[in-house]
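Example record

The entry below shows one chain as it appears in the dataset: sequence first, then structure tokens.
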Amino acid sequence: MLNWEIMSTILLVGQHEALLEGLVQSLVASRFRPVVAFSLMEARELAAHDPPLMAVVDRAFAAAAGHELLTLPLAPRTALVLYTMQGGAAIAISAAVQRAVLAELTLPLERNRLIALAHSLQERARSRGRIVEDEPPASHAP
């Protein structure tokens, strides 16, 4: 990866370490900067320090957090995405949280859809001037 490329931050929130590790590897390979939080407090700290392009949250975690999930310090136009584990049961979430969600995915089955969504959001942010890229380094011909 070229060092001048801007990598957007993707915040992953949940309790499933193996799944999150797999997502981290896929996101890094797709030129994103994933950060992982295992609690809402940790997610708040990470989001306040480095506002993510997208927050990907375990649906069960979102259901347990309720309206408190909406207090994450996310930047304007940050997408909130919920995921369930493949074969997991559907868990009800509050209407307010449901309205804030851009997409719901079944992971790891829909990993490619997650990556495509992240790329789409990044392009939208770049076209609106939210992401400003540095110029590539000049080549030095001998």
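Notes for this example: Residues 9-127 form a domain with the Rossmann fold fold (CATH 3.40.50.2300). Confidence is low (pLDDT under 50) at residues 132-142.
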